[in-house]
Amino acid sequence: MKNNPSLSPLARPARRRLECLLMERRYFDWAATAPFRPASFNEINPAIANPSSRHLEGRKARDLLESARARCAAVLGVSPSSIFFTSGGTESNAAALYSVLVRSRTAGILVSGIEHASISEPAKTLSRMGRPVGSFPPEPSGHLAPEALGKKLAAMKPCALVSAMAVNNETGALMDVAALVRAARVADPRAHFHCDAVQALGKAPVDLAAWGVDSASFSAHKIGGPRGVGILYARKRFEVLAAGGGQESGMRPGTENVEGALAFADALEARSRGEAAAFDEASGRCARLVQGLSSIGGCSIIPASRTARDPRFSPYIVMAALQGLPGEVLARMLDDAGFAVSTGSACSSGKNERPVLTAMGMTEETARGAVRVSQGWTTTEADIDALIAAFAEIARSSDAGKAWKNR
Amino acid sequence: MKDEKDRMVTYLLKLGELTLKGGNREEFEKKLRFNLQAMIRGNHAQVDVSKGRFFVRCPEESKAAVENALDRLIGIAGWAEAVPCDKTVGAVLGACVEVGKKLAASGAKSFKIESRRADKGFPLDSYGIMREAGSAVSIALPSMRVDVREPEAVIEVEIREKAYIYGMEKRGRRGLPVGTGGRALLLLSGGIDSPVAGYMMARRGMKIDAVYFHAHPYTSQEARDKVRSLASILGGYALGVKLWTVPFTDVQLRIRERAPGDWTTILMRMAMMEIADRIARANRIDCLVTGESVGQVASQTIQNMTCVQSRSRLPVLRPLVGTDKIDTVDLAKAIGTYGTSILPYEDCCSLFSPKHPILKADPAEADALYASLELGELLETAYRSKERERLGAPPEKKKAQG
Questions:
Q1: Considering only CA atoms, which of A170, A384, A370, A196 is closest in space to residue A283?
Q2: Among B115, B201, B127, B208, CA closest to B155
Q3: Would the CB atoms of A407 and B220 count as touching at under 8 Å?
Q4: Mean pLDDT, residues B117-139 taken together
Q5: pTM of this prediction?
Q6: Terminus of chain B with fewer CB atoms < 10 Å: N or C?
Q7: B171 in A contact zone (CB under 8 Å)
């Protein structure tokens, strides 16, 4: 009875807390944050001093920081001098975007139509400051087409910066970053290419050298590291807007988060071990999920063209909807049934806008109905089966399709 | 010389509409005093009453809290920080100059003096006070000139058991003290109108309680929290609001299942009215209050209101029935509920509402449809599962005051 959403009484806070404790919870919101992996703090030598201090303790902290940088660089296959630690994906993205203010007096930027708020909002700010800001839409499948980017960029030339993400945080669409970069180079060779790769880490192959991007953003908490640590990869150093004490070669002034950097390195190494095998397993679970959901009447996968083992999508993120049921409501029903899912980016849940899905050309109703299911390395097939069963139960009991039509 | 931190501040409060009351005026004053004391409790403030004036004295450090309470107090026409002084001509003129300095500092270029002399023993009559004080202020402050027609500032002198001088009178909330006008149960949604309707009835002296219909999982916890914060804001004026939250999902699902799409809104409101009526009668509440306004949305036609009203035996008051939306919005901003009301969480009405609700419901048809829903048991369950909390109430009385 507890799982029947239509019967759920208004739970008193105390009782609700108790229910939450007793209820088996299944976590399907890995794209928002991956559970913190305690192992990532195990090997940390506390760095008591400021890495910029010249005494012995300071030099020790500096060594620890540099070792973390080297380890991260090794996993990402790039030079340590191109890794700069930040406070997370948002700061890395902001540093890249706002660099256009010191890069050029007038030139604008081009961003894709499906970027995370940490790209699209700074773009709006730049627009308010008078910079030309262009945008290009995705394919209906949610992918970014190199031709669309190239065409728009050629029209905007000269452009200071182009920003396109590697993996979409809502649909899981994998972009062909290398092809996007090539198209950008043809259209405007001088434009800086920035890639928000926050969702790519741990959910898709990352090959910065092959991509050829000028800069990219990463965040530790998406792969089991701590929150509050990120990386800005920059092939060549560039001038950033935030100025200060010159730390991180001036790319990110502010006292360095040594512990965070070490934990990020731990998490990266942990993820890279057996990554291929993990990806295969995740693909299997994803296929099971997509097939299971597709077989439920009224349930659809977004985009509809996505197949069970679709190489165009990260297996870690699946977007789905129950016809006629707002995604917000579906997410709450699943929450009551013990499943943690989101309607989309956690950074915009609570708002009624779904810019990514709207950019894909979806109707407002479909966009509003979408929920994001994201899995990770502790997700099991049993979890997937339970989630499919919960979707089926909600579809049955809420009679979703019938109820919301023709209103 | 008194220590700076012991300095006391005096506020003079002018009573509003209740001065029109005859025989039961004393009762209204008593209630106002009770409310005021509750609202400033814990600030070491003291209330005195004398002939149509209330006086609040508090330490300097409680100023902000006391002024905040006075700004929320319903039943006063105006209030001002007053300078009390001895009843000698010299002291009164000195205090007038002191108040004039503050007015000049706030940018006033012209002023006039007004005076009331309750104590006829004072050597100058009202006219004499105005004349002497006017000349004293204009000599001391050359930047201020006397203008009796359109002054930018007014310095008021009242001669009572002491003399009180004040300028910069703040407008009070007016109305009648909360608790003198019976009890009302407000149907509170997360929208702009219903909190305003509740405020308007509180200003008529009514004690306000509220009921909210929650449709989890169709409405979010955020939507419920929004209603709770609206109730808290309202409670700041109404000395606390008791909020009943009624789980309404099953009723709504039944309506959606059985009723024609265009009838869902009106049938839902009928069901809400029935539960509200029951809560009110069980708690000796005298009437229901809604934020409805004729024609504001398609479902709020006079015909529809008539149908909805039929589910309650109590009077249904609609203080906004004839107001324009823009006026309601202005009032919502003035009472501080607007910013909360426009937070983007959908309340249960908007998720369950049809695109085209029926405009002129026929009462007989409405009754027949309502009966066909067979809501009896669902309403009973909803009623029994309601939760109650008190929000926005002033701090509880302590056993021994400081």
A1: A384
A2: B115
A3: no
A4: 91
A5: 0.83
A6: N
A7: no
